[in-house]
C-alpha cells in the first residue's frame, strides 16, 4: 500500500513536499550532512536594511543556576549553604565576582558570578550583560497553588531532558519540527543574499533552528561541510569528481528526484560560496584554546565577518555545550564548565567589538531547565526555573530582570524537591529578543504560539529595535 501523498508538480505541492521532507529528515538521513538544506524563501515576510544576529548558546543537561549565579548577601548565602552544604561555593571565593546592578534588587538581595565566569564581570559592569532571573518553560502564567491543584496547563513531561529541551527551543515537546529561532528565520530568509545562511548551527541538528520553511545550515568549527567526492578529487581523479557532480545535479523529471537534485546543487553552491567568503575574513581576537564552545563561537564570528560576501542581513546562530546534567560530581565538573562558558562568551563579545558589530549581535543562553535548590549526595537534580545571560551592545545591561526567587526548601517559589517555579516564561524571554531583532508584534504571535497567554511580552532588557 502506498503511504505517500500524491505529488503534484505545482508550487503548493512542491512546498508540501519540502515540508514533509524536512520533517522526515529524508535528505539528512540518506545523504552527507552538507545536503541537509531546505528551500527557505517562500514564507519570508520581513525585510531589513541593516544587519543583526542572534546567537543562542544552549547548555545541554540543565545548568545548575544556584552555582552559576550564587546568592551573596548574608541571609541568602546562609540559606543557600544550608540547602547544599556539600556543593556550595565558598563565599570568600565570590568576593571578586559580586554583581552591582544599576538598580539594586529588593530586600538587599545580592548575587555573585561563579568564579569561572569572572571574564563576564567587566561586561556586566560596562552595561553589556543582563541577567534574567527565574525563567523557564511555561504554557501560561502559573502560581504555586495552581501547580499544586493541577488547575493550569503545564509544559508536557516536566523535568524530562528531551521534552524540556524541545519545549524550550520550540514551544512543543519532543517531536517538534520547528523552533522559534527557525521561525524567525522564515521571516527574513528572502531578504538575505543567500537564504541558506539565515539559520546556521555550529552544533549539529537542533529543532531551535528549523523553521516552517527554513531548515538550518550546519557547519563545523572548521567551516562548511563539502559533499564528499566533489570538493576533492574522487579516487584521485578530477574527472571522476566532475562526473559525480554532473550525475548529482542533472535535471530530473520525477518530483522527488528533482527536489533532491536541487537541494544537492544548492549544497554544493553554498559550500563554494561560504568557503570563498571565509577565506577573505580575519578575526584576530584570541579565543580560548581547547574550548569547544569557544571554537564554535569563533566560527560564528567568522561568518558574521563574512556577512558582506554572503549578503546576510538577519542571521540566527546556534552553538552548544554539554555536560550540565550534574547529578553527581557537581563540585568538580561545574566549575570547569563555568570557566569554558565565561572565557568563550567574553572572547566572542570582544570579537564583535573588533568587527564593529557589537551593537548588532546579541548572545543569549538557554538550557533544558534549572536544577534543584537542595543538593543530593554529590550534585543536584532536575529542576525547572533557571537564570540566563543576555550579552551584547544592544543589551540594557548591568541589570537583573525579573524577581529573585527565595532560596528556601518548600518556600514560596519551590513546587517541591527544591524545584523553582518560573516567574518568567521562555516565551517572554524570546519575544524580547525577537522584538530587538525586528520581528513585529503580529509576527511574534506566529513565532511563539503561547505568547498570547502572557500580558508582559517585553521584559525590557533590550534597547529598542
Automatic annotation (TrEMBL):
Superkingdom, taxonomy of origin: Bacteria
UniProt-listed PROSITE patterns: TAT (PS51318)
InterPro entries assigned: DUF1501, TAT_signal
PANTHER family the record matches: BLL7424 PROTEIN (PTHR43737), DUF1501 DOMAIN-CONTAINING PROTEIN (PTHR43737:SF1)
The name this protein goes by in its record: DUF1501 domain-containing protein
Organism: Caenimonas terrae
Amino acid at each position: 500500500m502506498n503511504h505517500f501523498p500524491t505529488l503534484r508538480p505545482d508550487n503548493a505541492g512542491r512546498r508540501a513536499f519540502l515540508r514533509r521532507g524536512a520533517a522526515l529528515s529524508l535528505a539528512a538521513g540518506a545523504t552527507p550532512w552538507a545536503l541537509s538544506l531546505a528551500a527557505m524563501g517562500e514564507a519570508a515576510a520581513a525585510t531589513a536594511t541593516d544587519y543583526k544576529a542572534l546567537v543562542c548558546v544552549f547548555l545541554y543537561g540543565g545548568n545548575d543556576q544556584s552555582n552559576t549565579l550564587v546568592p551573596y548577601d548574608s541571609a541568602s548565602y546562609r540559606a543557600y549553604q544550608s540547602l547544599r552544604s556539600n556543593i556550595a561555593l565558598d563565599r570568600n571565593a565570590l568576593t571578586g565576582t559580586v554583581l552591582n546592578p544599576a538598580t539594586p534588587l529588593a530586600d538587599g538581595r545580592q548575587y555573585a558570578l561563579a568564579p569561572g565566569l569572572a571574564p563576564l564581570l567587566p561586561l556586566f559592569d560596562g552595561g553589556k550583560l543582563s541577567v534574567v532571573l527565574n525563567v523557564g518553560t511555561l504554557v501560561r502564567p502559573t502560581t504555586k497553588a495552581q501547580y499544586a491543584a493541577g488547575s493550569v496547563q503545564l509544559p508536557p513531561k516536566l523535568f524530562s531532558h528531551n521534552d524540556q529541551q524541545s519545549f524550550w527551543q520550540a514551544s512543543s515537546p519532543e517531536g517538534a519540527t520547528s523552533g522559534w529561532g527557525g521561525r524567525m528565520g522564515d521571516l527574513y530568509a528572502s531578504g538575505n543574499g543567500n537564504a541558506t545562511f539565515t539559520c546556521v548551527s555550529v552544533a549539529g541538528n537542533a529543532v531551535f533552528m528549523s523553521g516552517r520553511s527554513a531548515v538550518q545550515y550546519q557547519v563545523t568549527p572548521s567551516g562548511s561541510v563539502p559533499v564528499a567526492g566533489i570538493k576533492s578529487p574522487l579516487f584521485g581523479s578530477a574527472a571522476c569528481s566532475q562526473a559525480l557532480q554532473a550525475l548529482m545535479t542533472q535535471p530530473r523529471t520525477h518530483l522527488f528526484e528533482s527536489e533532491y537534485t536541487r537541494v544537492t546543487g544548492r549544497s554544493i553552491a553554498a559550500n563554494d560560496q561560504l568557503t570563498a567568503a571565509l577565506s577573505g575574513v580575519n578575526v584576530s581576537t584570541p579565543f580560548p584554546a581547547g574550548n569547544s564552545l569557544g571554537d564554535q563561537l569563533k566560527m560564528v564570528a567568522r561568518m558574521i565577518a563574512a556577512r558582506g560576501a554572503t549578503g546576510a542581513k538577519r542571521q540566527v546562530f546556534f552553538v552548544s555545550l554539554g555536560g550540565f546534567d550534574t547529578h553527581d560530581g557537581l563540585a568538580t565538573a561545574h566549575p570547569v564548565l563555568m570557566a569554558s562558558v565565561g572565557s568563550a562568551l567574553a572572547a566572542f563579545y570582544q570579537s564583535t567589538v573588533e568587527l564593529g558589530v557589537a551593537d548588532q549581535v546579541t548572545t543569549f543562553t538557554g538550557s533544558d531547565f534549572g536544577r534543584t535548590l537542595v543538593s543530593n549526595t554529590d550534585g543536584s537534580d532536575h529542576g525547572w526555573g533557571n537564570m540566563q545571560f543576555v550579552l551584547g551592545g544592544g543589551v540594557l545591561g548591568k541589570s537583573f530582570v525579573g524577581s529573585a526567587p527565595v532560596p528556601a526548601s518548600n518556600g514560596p517559589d519551590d513546587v517541591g524537591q527544591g524545584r523553582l517555579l518560573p516567574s518568567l516564561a521562555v516565551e517572554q524571554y524570546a519575544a524580547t529578543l525577537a522584538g530587538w531583532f525586528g520581528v513585529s508584534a503580529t509576527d511574534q504571535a506566529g513565532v511563539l504560539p503561547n505568547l498570547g497567554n502572557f500580558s508582559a511580552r517585553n521584559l525590557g532588557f533590550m534597547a529598542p529595535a
